[in-house]
Amino acid sequence: MDISWQYIACPVEGPIVYHFKDGSNPWWTAVQIRNHRHAIQSFAVGDGSGGWIDVPRVDYNYFVKDDGVGDGPLTFQVTDVSETASKTAASPAGRRRPRRQRPVPALPVSAQSFR
User: Fold this and answer.
1) Does pLDDT of 111 surpass 80?
2) Residue 9's closest CA among 81, 64, 70?
3) What is the rounded CA–CA span in Å between residue 75 and residue 81?
4) pTM
5) DSSP per position, 35-65
6) Which of 82, 12, 22, 21 lies closest to 55 in space, CA to CA?
7) Exposed (0-12), middle (13-18) or buried (19+): which is 93, by Cβ within 10 Å?
8) Residues pairing with 42 in the sheet
9) What's the rounded Cα separation, in Å, for the pair 70 and 93?
10) What residues contact 77, with CB distance under 8 A and at least 6 apart?
11) What angle do CA 21, 83, 8 make, to 5 degrees?
12) Backbone phi, psi, residue 48, to 5°
């Protein structure tokens, strides 16, 4: 039996939210991406000189950098499954608005019945 599937956008409003796990600090940091419209493919933190350091996702859906991300200011790059990247300044003290999320596309008729 052949099975086919596709990603669909979540109908969320507002900016992406970076949730810092309790216990995160400059020397061990865990970040969960919330309120995202499209599935997240990767997460990276700016290295301070224009480059990016990939942060691996762990099985409890946080991106964890075992040696931390430092004191900041922090710049994050989130890439969704369609490889659209959003760069955002963020800090554990608050959340910042990324560039706008892409709009939710209209669902195919067959998918609309599952709403």
Assistant:
1) no
2) 81
3) 20
4) 0.73
5) S-SS-EEEEEEE-SSS-EEEEPBPTTS-EEE
6) 21
7) exposed
8) 79
9) 13
10) 43, 44, 45, 46, 52, 85, 86, 87, 88
11) 80
12) 90, -10
- The CATH code of the domain at 17-92 is 2.60.40.760
Can you read off the two tokens belonging to residue 98?
């990324």
Q: What's the average model confidence in pLDDT over 40-53?
A: 92
**Residue pLDDT, tens place only, 49-105:** 889 999 999 999 999 999 999 988 888 999 988 777 676 766 554 444 444 444 444
Report domain extents, the chain. 17-92
Q: Which one-letter amino acid corresponds to residue 8?
A: I
First to last CA, the chain: 25
